[in-house]
Amino acid sequence: AESYFPECFAPWDADTKQLSAVTPREGPYRIALVNGFAGNDWRIQMIRAAESYVKRPEIAAKVKEFTAVSVGNDVAAQIAAIENYVAAGYDAVLFIAVNPEAFDAVIDRANQAGTLLVSFDNVVFNDNHLIVDIDHGEIAAKKAQAILDELKATNITEGKVLWVRGLQGNATEKQQTESFKKVFEGTSFEVVEVVGNWDVGTSQRVTAEAVAAHGKFVGVANAYGSMGSIQALLDAKHPAVPFGSDTMNGAVRMLAENGFTGVAIGSSPSVSAVAILAALSSFEGKQMPQRIKLPPPSLPSTDWKDGIAYFSQLPASFDTATGFKECNLLFTADELTAK
Amino acid sequence: MPVLLGAMVFVIVLAVYLAVHPRGISSFVIQSYANSAAPLALAALAQTFPVLTGGLDLSVGGMVALTNALASELVHGSPLEIASGVLIVLSVGALCGALNGALIVYGRLQPIIGTLATGAVFSGLALFIRPFPGGEVDAGFAYAMTSILFGVLPVSTLMIAIIAACTWAAISRASLGRGIFAAGSAPQAARLSGLRIERSIIAAYVLSGLFSAFAGLYLGFQTLSGDATIGAPYTINSIAAIVIGGLSLRGGAGSPLSAIFGAYALRAISAVLLFTGAPPLAQPLFEGMVLVTAVAAASIALVRDPNRLRAYQ
Amino acid sequence: MTVNAIRLRGIGKSYGPTRALSDVSLDIEAGTVHAVLGENGAGKSTLIKILTGVLAPDTGTVDLFDERLDHDGPQAAERLGLATVFQELSLVPHLSVEDNLFLSKPPRSKFGWIDLRRQRAESRRWLDLVGLGDVHPGTHAGQLSLTQKQLLEIAKGFAKTPRILLLDEATASLPGNDVDRLFKIIADARREGLTVIYISHRMSEIERIADRCSVLRNGQLIETFPTHSRSHDEICRMLAGREISQVFPPRHSLPTDAPVVLSVSGLSAVDKVKDISFAVRRGEVLGIGGLEGQGQKELLQTLYGAIRTAAGSVTLDGKPFNPTGPAAAIAGERPVMLLPEDRKTEGLLLAESIRDNMLLSVKGKLSRYGLRNQVAEVARSGDMIRKLGIKIASPEAPVSSLSGGNQQKVLLARLLLNEPAVYILMDPTRGIDVGTKQEIYALIRDLADRGAAVLFLTTDFEELIGMCDRVLVLYGGAITRELEGEALNEVNVMEASLNMTRPETIRNPAEMEIPT
Amino acid sequence: MALRVERSIWIACLFVLALTIVIGITYPATISVNYYMQQLQIAAFVGVLASGAMVVLLLGEIDLSMPWTATAAGMLACGAFSSGAAWANDGTAISAALLLGLAIGGVNAFGVAILRAPSMVWTLGVNAILLGLTVVYAGGYSPQTNASPLMRHLAVGRVFDVVPVALLIWLFVGSVLVLVLRLTPLGAWIYAMGRSSRVAYLAGVPTRVVVLFAFLWAGLCSAVGGVLLSGYSGQAFQAMGDPMLLPSIAAVVVGGTKVTGGEGRYLGTVMGVLALTLLSNVLSLMQAPEALRLIIYGSTIILMLLVSRRRSQAHH
Ligand SMILES: Nc1ncnc2c1ncn2[C@@H]1O[C@H](COP(=O)(O)OP(=O)(O)OP(=O)(O)O)[C@@H](O)[C@H]1O
Ligand SMILES: Nc1ncnc2c1ncn2[C@@H]1O[C@H](COP(=O)(O)OP(=O)(O)OP(=O)(O)O)[C@@H](O)[C@H]1O
Ligand SMILES: [Mg+2]
Ligand SMILES: [Mg+2]
To answer: Where would one find the signal peptide in this protein (chain B) (predicted)?
Structure first.
């Protein structure tokens, strides 16, 4: 059968099945969002996106109740929270998995109880629930590709490329690093890795140290926390080189103002809103792939202009990837930052 | 008396939780709540023994991570493989504890910093075994361990009650156990009296390792997998739990009930938030406030004591 | 033929530069009571610790019943039948009385577990023996009074059914009747072959109980002799290496118009202090007496602000005095200062230097513009060291390297430096030798003569009578009697302490059977 | 006050030397004034935070609220600077952050000295509250998070293009601390309380004042650290203090301060900070996988402690 809204709800790959773990039902619905750790900017904006989305009139009409909780980094607490909402008869429970392997039993129980589970961002590989995914490997690969293209265009054929990795012990991180390095395989560029832990401060320190130890890099990319790396380059008076960045307002702005090239690409925090939309659509009987692949919002350096790629009046920590245009789901900055 | 306070905190919080739960008391809610508190209760029990000796174990999280990673490698297959897997996991936990104990007793390291450092090593080892989440824990066994008996008695609670009671019975009937209290209460006096408290201190850390392994194992049952980063919250939360449960960090006295009540109370505190409809961004604030209030309540007896000296031991 | 229970040959021990013992050789016959005498720091405790195996000597050997002793902990000596009652209490406060009693060797059941029922039964027996029959074996040892703790410590020694028993100042906090009981037990056990080594600074006790005495001075064995072969004065001279005269300094009668310094009226606190009223005047040494644990300690701590007042009022120089804590009590123009009862856990920072310990209370006053005045600190502490005759290697040495008497002087110096209006002294001579005691008595009298008011707590009746101008005897948290002048005598103090009115029921220690 | 350098300080000192040589040999590019100054600059951030941690540790207490005190102070300084309020300028923004640090220190002291809560759990709770407040603040008020020019200068500026301003700040903070510890009654009281609070209390030491000072100082140092960290990154961001907690406490302890209180010298803390900063630099240059990094980091700390402990025991 033809999927609903294929531009937005694209299947992950050819083998992706249609979602079957849901029975269509009458609205309005009760939806819960179970977040893990709360103390980081991306997560805060993610929660705000979900909250503003359910306040939009067309969605508000369909949602009877929306609850969001943050349970911290404890997988047992997250399991319990999801189970509680299942027990309380919620129609859908959305979550970013603290541990992507931990939820098989929970998913079975939810399906028996008739609750649809939706995992996003850090997803669970289980066929019996809805996955709203972004290809994190692709994000890293696009950063690498942008650097490689720029280098080709400027006739640089060798040198060191710095890759600032994320938090190790995480499946997504592994995927990112592998994809990044794959792009440079067979070229005469050498990839130097340091661990930035997806954290601005750590990224800055390790980038500064790498520059001190290795001298100049021909290109730099950071998995998340690019502001730190860019700041380190600026502080070290490193020349502007092709840069693979995340979409943080401050990062794009610094890159643009200092003449860097490359790409800003990332998983938008608004993915929570897409997850809500997907859940609602499936309740309404629409055909959905079981694992949705969202295109990561990205902007090449040619578009790095104030008001388009960054907003000088907004905080540096604001994620400029405010939505997914393929899903007609774009937020204005006001919606996400209003008091 | 302090245990009573811990029990009170627990009962109040639990009552509020069940009162705001849209489903009220149901067997599923009990089961889910009990299971979510189980690894924390085990970690808090682990923390109890070093604290009784007047020490502290900051490697609990590291040991939980390491044993959880190991469990996802070993605890599946034939019943024999599962049994030996469980045994190995528990032994590795005990071994980690023995290393801590040896560093503290023979290396004369201060417990806080010694275990902080070994905690890093254990987390590193966990990452070696399980560079990213995965592996397998036998589903049938796990299902049994996370289920509920007669709709009222969660297996996890029963298991914790049994191992805590057995350990406690053994401790109060062995010289080794007496030494654990003596070490926290008056080590010099105990040494003069001919009690070998060094062995007891090592034993306390071995028990800490063992109970951390139980926690790691139980997390394996809950998640059916292993994750090297799973342990991090347990170090600090285990300490918070025993304090809320009324155990004094000064050592020398206390009971495992503190750990158990404290852990279940702490879990109930976060569970309460699920249905209060509090604005999501304000929840961490609320949780912090409750924690601080509970800690203040647990130490209120000292403030009200007219003997001001009592606060200065 | 006589058997040597203990044979010491050429024992030497140094702590860094301090020679605690040098070349001590001694034989102790089985079945005798042997007293070891010496001033503070003479090396008695060190000798005991070497005998017990807790401490290894630098030179020499120890044989117990002709077996060589390994010095790797108390277990080896214990196996050879030696038990010790240490000078520092070795009880574990959070464990129960019975657990403490059988701390190292509990009765065991078949599988090696502790046999709790037998432990209870046996502990009852030993508690009865030392007169602790009314203490429940399950009580925490920390809840006992100091006297009870000491008795428990003694019971602990006997419970090991030893062949040799070492008692290191085991009677330091025992009132007379408990000492009598202890002596009776020792006499009985001795008849059955027990060898006892007895250390005490109370000469009267030694004369009553010991068969032979050894005198240590500066780590050297001066002489061993049969107890009654030497007179009291001879022994004192031997101990000190010099002449000891009158113990208590002479009293001057107070001028009748001496102003009241501290006045207490209707004071109650916790449940140990009940409706206490008294006044102490300038130049007066006011004794606080009674059996141990009758609220004396709490009363004094309340005056010092360490315990919150429940009712009543206190005035200092006629002005209300309600300190919120010790810091407030010592802060004023006319400070009230307290010398704590237990110098090791309440008085001194053992690892810190002698100078820092002395200056701990005075720091705030010896500073200018918020900075410490190091010159003044060195000068003032040096003065004190000279004035009190504190024997030290250097003011920077840790206070733990001093003997008990010198440690106590350091504490007294801390008070003196602040020039308090009221001195609250809690048992300032506990465990201190005759010579040093005498110096401390003289010092206290001198303080009073120069205008201070002194509250003097002690459980030693002799001290109470010899030192104080007036004595308040407490019982159950209330003042039972106030004694002064002629009325201040042993019979009255004893009577008031026991809250009894019939003098004939008091056992006179002199009439007790004394083993010889 | 004899200047006696403990073994632990020697060990840390030797360790720093050894690491510098190893790094120099392996990465010759690093043999430059600039590299050493850069390491000192990073060390200065840890050093300032460790100065706060040390005082609290000397009392035998601990301050686990440091990470989010630093974060909140950084957020406040940045937010205030760009708030557009009439009073807000470079200087007042930083002052506001420092005041916040002091206020948090006051709350910690209130819990520990008045309510008698164990510091380990009380400050943990305060940390959680600060996290919550920061989340509410960031989520609800969308504050600006750019660092002011002065903050930038303090964190990354160089005097004569060589000496990091941050290093001078550390020097200043350290000197104040040494002055307090060595030359004021307060310093003596801190050591005394760390040895035995019972003895100190009975000797008339104003124990509450001492605890209050220790936590105020720790809060202040955390706030300075937060201002520096956000100056360094050019902005404040959530959780920016989190990675700093363990290194700053470990540095103090590796430098010979007893966590049970009463013993420790600032020189030791300085060496500890340098040792751990260099160690984590080496590990990151080696591109060591996280697993190895944790193992080496942990075992190095154990080793350093063992070596310094063992020898000092042997003296007996
Ligand atoms: N642990 C120690 N470190 C350094 N010196 C010590 C130590 N223990 C004792 N000394 C010193 O050794 C000498 C003998 O001390 P010891 O305790 O044996 O004396 P004592 O005769 O028992 O005195 P007291 O009557 O005060 O109990 C003293 O000078 C004392 O200062
Ligand atoms: N058996 C013992 N061995 C060693 N130290 C002891 C022993 N009993 C008590 N102490 C110590 O002596 C001090 C006084 O103890 P105790 O139990 O008498 O306190 P307390 O009477 O409750 O004190 P307070 O009246 O001041 O509240 C404490 O520091 C305690 O740790
Ligand atoms: Mg002695
Ligand atoms: Mg002595």
So the answer is: none
